[in-house]
Design brief:
The chain is mainly beta and 376 residues long. It is flat and about 75 Å long.
């Protein structure tokens, strides 16, 4: 298969896409494909149990056990690539999003360390572009990117052993066009739990009652001469203008879960006083600084790797671009908590904010109004 066959539609065969083909990146993919071409003796996994998982749309996470039940398994997932228009703010701004399973971010997958992840990646013939997937949790072949290049109408099946415990990003990484696909929404996360579950770094179990997945996304929407956000008939038509905005390194929107307000108001995340909540937070492209206003990170794996002891009692934690992190918190007071990127311009002006709506009884010992606000 030619590494330059990026689409079956002629509109993307011109100068715009040719300019996207960075020779170094393309050569890297080509060389990787050549290197993995020889077939080695297959691993015999016939004795392992197979488990098929139905993924769910973030911020929710599919059912799973926190401790491994028995020996390693082959865990089967399916991701279907969907290129679609999405509205990303209350002004009706549209992007031509590229997605896994139709959501930004893609679904969170959960396995246990030393399980095998077996992913079926489907690129329907209704799409325009070539895609693939790079798992930061995988070892070898560009994270699977060299083995999963699928044109419209094709599918691929990738299997890898999840040898590292933690939360990790996955994203599309087609030859020469990686940043365009990632910043168009084509990213997600996988959580590889230790086989004996999470602990506080001192051997004490940390068992969560709920888990939510927050995917932070930077969009780069072009504007016209009057300053209005532009719309396009197709994802290919948007490419040239979008690339120019991307090269400024200045996002037009920075949002949680695909749109301004996706996790606020009626879409707020819910909890109750006393509930232990694990928040998985990913950013596939830019650094971020999560902060729970009115709460804390009781235990935080800022770079998401569970073999490392968690930091404790954090106010704000730093997640580098291309990384997923995790924070564990027990809610102690009812009310509305804002969960934000604490670059406050990005939170309040560009959209990187969510809400937790927490029910329960108020504890005056933790906070009380000694003197209510009054006039002078």
């Amino acid at each position: 298969m030619s590494q330059f066959n990026l689409t079956r539609r002629s509109m993307l065969a011109g100068a715009a896409i040719a300019g996207a083909l960075g020779p170094l990146v393309t050569a890297t993919f080509a060389n990787a494909s050549e290197e993995v071409a020889p077939v080695t003796t297959p691993t015999d996994l016939s004795a392992l149990q197979r488990v098929k998982v139905d993924l769910v749309k973030p911020p929710f996470v599919h059912a799973h056990t926190q401790k491994a039940d028995g020996p390693p398994k082959i865990v089967e997932f399916t991701l279907t690539i969907k290129e679609q228009k999405m509205v990303i703010d209350d002004q009706g701004t549209q992007v031509h999003a590229m997605t896994f399973n139709g959501s930004v971010p893609g679904p969170l997958m959960v396995v246990h360390q030393n399980d095998y992840v077996e992913l079926t990646l489907i690129n329907p013939d209704t799409n325009e572009l070539q895609h693939n997937i790079d798992f930061h949790s995988a070892t070898g072949a560009l994270g699977g990117g060299a083995l999963t290049i699928v044109n419209p109408g094709e599918k691929a099946v990738l299997r890898f052993k999840a040898t590292k415990a933690g939360v990790f990003v996955y994203h599309c990484a087609p030859p020469g066009m990686v940043p365009w696909h990632v910043t168009a929404g084509m990213n997600g996360a996988i959580m590889v739990l230790p086989r004996d579950g999470l602990n506080d770094g001192h051997g004490n179990d940390l068992v969560y009652d709920k888990v939510y997945y927050v995917g932070e996304q930077d969009f780069y929407v072009p504007r016209d001469e009057a300053g209005n956000f532009k719309t396009y008939d197709s994802v290919g038509d948007s490419y040239d203008d979008t690339l120019k905005v991307m090269r400024t390194l200045t996002p037009s929107h920075i949002v949680f879960n695909g749109a301004v307000g996706a996790l606020t108001g009626e879409n707020a995340l819910t909890a109750a006083v006393g509930e232990k909540v694990l928040i998985v937070h990913s950013q596939a492209n830019r650094d971020t600084r999560p902060h729970l206003i009115g709460g804390h990170g009781d235990y935080v794996w800022a770079t998401g790797k569970f073999r490392n002891p968690p930091d404790v009692d954090q106010e704000t934690w730093f997640i580098p671009g291309g990384t997923a992190g995790a924070a564990f918190y027990t809610f102690e007071q009812p009310g509305i908590y804002a969960y934000v990127n604490h670059n406050l311009i990005e939170a309040f002006e560009l959209g990187a904010a969510a809400h937790f709506k927490v029910t329960g009884d108020w504890n005056n010992d933790l906070m009380t109004a000694v003197v209510s606000p009054t006039g002078s």
